[in-house]
Amino acid sequence: MIAYDITLGADAVKITVIGILQAAGIFALAPLLTGVMRKVKAKRQKRVGASVIQPYYDLLKLLKKDEVVSEHASWVFQWTPWIVAASTMSAALFIPIFVPFSPVSSAGDILVVLGLFALARFFVMLAGIDTASAFGGIGVSREMMMSSLAEPGLFLTVFVISLTFGGTNLTSLVGAAAQSGVVIAPSVLFGFIAFFIITLAETGRLPFDNPATHLELTMVHEAMVLEYSGRGLALIQWSQSIKQLLLLGLMVDLFLPIGMPASADASLALLGFGAAAVVVKVVLLAVVISYLETRVAKWRLFRLPDLFTMAIASAMVGMIVFYL
Amino acid sequence: MDFSYAYPDLFLAVVALFVTGALLPLLLNTRRGAIAAFVPAAIASALTAALSTLILFSGSTIRLAPPLTASIPSIGIALYIDGVSAFFMLIIGLVATAVSIYSLGYSGGSEEKRGVRSVGFLINLFVLSMILVVATNNVFSFLLFWELMSLTSFLLVIHEDEKPGTLKSGITYLIMTHIGTAFITAAFLILYFSTGSLSFDAFRSSAGQLAPFTKDAVFILALLGFGTKAGLVPMHIWLPKAHPSAPSNVSALMSGVMLKVAIYGLVRVTFDFVVPSSPGDAWLGLLMVAAGSSSALVGVLYAAVEHDIKRALAYHSVENIGIIVLGLGLSVVFLSYGLATLAALALLASMYHSLNHAVFKGLLFMGAGSVVLKTGTADMNLMGGLAKKMPWTAMFFLIGSIAIAGLPPLNGFVSEWLTMQALLSSYQVPNQVLQVSIGFASVAFALTLGLALATFVKLFGISFLARPRSAGAERASEVPRTMVAGMAVAGILCVVLGVLPFVATSAVASAFHLDLGLITPYSPLGPLAVGYTASGLSSISSLSMPTVLILTGSVGAAVFGFVVLAGSGRKPVVRPYTTWEGGFGPLGERTEYTATSLSQPIRTVFKTFYRPHTSIKREYFSDSNHLVRKSVSVVSETREVFEDYLYSPVVGGTLFLLDKVRRIQTGKINSYLLYMMIATVSLLLLAVFQF
Predict the structure, then answer these.
(1) Do B551 and A126 make contact, defined as CB atoms within 8 angstroms?
(2) Would you say residue B412 lies in a domain?
(3) What are phi and psi of B640, to 5 degrees?
(4) Among B408, B456, B563, whose Cβ lies nearest the Cβ of A231?
(5) Structural domain that includes position B666
(6) Residues of B in Cβ contact (< 8 Å) with A235
(7) For a disulfide at B296, which of B162, B302, B322, B402, Cβ 3.0-4.6 Å?
(8) pLDDT tens digits along A128-138
């Protein structure tokens, strides 16, 4: 276990300002990451593809549009986009992405972040049932199975990370990772494999779910939010992008902390360099994932448990290796 | 001010009120009977909650010995209420208050409901006996009130005996609960033989001096006995039968409270009488961890594929009891290795979850009871659309669902957070076998949480959302105000215990004399935080639910502001229209997903566990040469692994054995005379040779 001193330094103003900038950066850059991934995928498929800033146009357009709401739906359907946005975006406050600290990380740790993601998913699944459509139902039914297997994978990954870096406080986890540089410890590598698989599942990428399709045979997430339009759809898509950035950013910070300063006391230049490094690394990771997406097809639903089992087993091995 | 001199009188007032509530309705007619039974019950329960809070936070204890029985020290009624008793009395009081208010409408609402008076009588006695069980201080009174609790609850389970299967469930419950009592009695007898007294005081004072083997035997017998009552796997089979058969207000009490009385017994025996103190005791804790984590997983797996709303909730009780016992087991493991801080953390998690489970399971059973009352069915496949017809019930059921699924910001999240912290700290146990075993328990725990989320999507979504799928659901309307009020009490408790965790943590800390200073030294957020440092600065975990809630709320407000601005300030028109049905025209309710279809992927993934069995029966028109089908019926069911592979062989073997024994009953007087002679001679021989 790595000892890490969590004290955030005396300069409360600097910490707070940078923390707010970090959150604003996450909210603002998340759609760009989605655009980059779509562009890479299009290039690989020999298409021109939309511009990388197309997601911003989509969101702004949706925000100005009127909404159509199913007459069968109840208040749960109406409230879901707001709950999803509030919980996903507040999860962003607790996670250090660009700098190695978050000003509020002692109020909410990595388990709170997972809990907020789960809350968002809970309401998206309810909204999928609420419209009384069989499309929603089929998405929820698949998501129920996938999320109930993704959850243990994610928790065990957290277990391995927490064993290696100490505690569940995200500032201390990311700080300890940055302090130790790249850890070539077996437990961390196994944790990374598990985290990578689970991230693909959680962000709805291939081979778990195809974010680009509306084919009823394959869609999972899209089926649940099929009835959303206008503001509701905008909020859900934006939250989805943010969640993707958060998970990729967290993966980069925990497993590839090259360039990240280990402490909040570092100079502004070092912090800025760290942030730039994070952006580069996240984009590279996104490129890798998009590239993978053009190489694999969507897996049959009942083969997916194999992948989840692989993630769970990998995290288990990481844990056992840590103990031995 | 010190009111401690009044506590014994207050306690007697509680007893008197419950007795009044039990006897009064017998003298009155049905309508007034409900009021006569449940108004005293509500007052008495609220008084119990208040009294136990006072005892908890004043740190005082009550000792009561009714004068009539005090002359015989060990076979008499002796009461002693310390912090632990008071904490469990608080749980009983809180839930019973909510349920009593709810019962005013539930039992009194419909005139045609028969036997309201007997239900009133029994519920009062039931709650009173639970309060007395946790307050007793010797074996005799403990077993007396324990049995009263079991019998009143048995009579309540079989109350709606016009429903098919109710009597069978009741008998299963009666048998299992007495097997449990037998184990508990055996544990107490061993304690009696090693201490020479039947008083709990003597057990407590000789706690450290038990021989190692005696210690293990007492612990295992207590785990079996109280585990049967609490519904631990594999002794859980009565629970999913008995709890759904009872009237819903009784289900709320049984699942919410009675299981906690069993947990109380386990806690009392483990931490007061057995007291794990050396690494040699760690395997006892590991046994509990194994029982707890497998109960959690088995309970939630069955709940995930259940379509009867009350039975699904009953299976969730098995799951949550598993989480509670998992926490207790971790506490025993940590205590065995002298890790006092971690033991306190795990115990805190476990007791916090006991309180939480009582509150949200009470709430969910009340909600389910309202739904069953209004739709006339407990089958979720025949519900749907209730969120519009029963908005208050829907809201409180949603609160309960979020809480039990362990999602922020409600109470289930906080206790599961603490349980996870206890699991994550298991690396400090200096034994690799234990570390890896607890690691496997963590996998089971994590899988449980994932499946619980999925199950409650199903429970709430299929029952309350989409369109009604039956005439009963179509006709449903909101329940009377008293029932909503009962659910509101429990719902508000869920929110308070979630957002202000220090309310519960301080109650647990004063009940068990835990040093919370050890658990929350890292608190820049003051008393608002639940957090702990495991070993110096190297491992820090903290949580502040008020801060999380404030941040989430302000982010939500900011997003709202941004959305309004980005939409150029114009309020968008929201147009209601039919759901897109793929261009086929309006589709009926039968195309919707049901509870069974929703859980189909889970059933397929875990098919080695469920052993699903589908039989398709086709009937053809005889003159169509097997071409034209008259009807197709599909029966799809999952097997009860434990009943088929564990209980059936035992029951079958017992019956076979008894069949053989029956042969000695020939009905001939000659043979009976022979038996008597053999018995007399053997007794004489026994007396002569002094065996």
Answers:
(1) no
(2) no
(3) -90, 95
(4) B563
(5) 646-689
(6) 559, 563
(7) B322
(8) 999 888 888 88
